[in-house]
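User: Design a sequence. Structure:
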């Protein structure tokens, strides 16, 4: 299939929300936890200087928070490590009430009293 797109790509602010169904970091169980990253990107994203804020589930223990911090900061390798050079500022990590659920038609996440987002799934693009 041949296709062509011409225009401008831009990012402004984005929310990346995660629900860990099962997992462990360096021997510490992080199953069932939620976390979210708030991204604020400059006009030219590849130049770096992104700001990233982190919300961790209020149920996270100090030990779990430390291990998740290693992953999210890129110190544990993987995809976050590749994004590290693009991050200019990480204002902080905050614990908050994060709820996640899915109903077979989509996903829903809420963070404290400030974010309430639903995503319909699945979707597809075709040409």
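Assistant: Done.
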């Amino acid at each position: 299939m041949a296709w062509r797109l011409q225009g401008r790509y831009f990012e402004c602010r984005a929310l990346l929300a995660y629900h860990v169904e099962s997992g462990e970091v360096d021997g510490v169980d992080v199953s069932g936890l939620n976390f979210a990253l708030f991204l604020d990107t400059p006009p030219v994203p590849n130049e770096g200087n992104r700001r990233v804020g982190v919300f961790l589930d209020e149920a996270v223990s100090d030990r779990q928070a430390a291990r998740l911090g290693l992953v999210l900061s890129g110190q544990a390798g993987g995809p976050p490590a590749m994004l590290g050079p693009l991050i200019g500022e990480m204002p902080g990590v905050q614990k908050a009430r994060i709820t996640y659920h899915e109903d077979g038609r989509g996903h829903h996440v809420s963070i404290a009293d400030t974010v309430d987002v639903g995503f319909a799934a699945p979707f597809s693009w075709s040409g």
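The longest strand covers residues 87-96. The first helix runs from residue 62 to 72.
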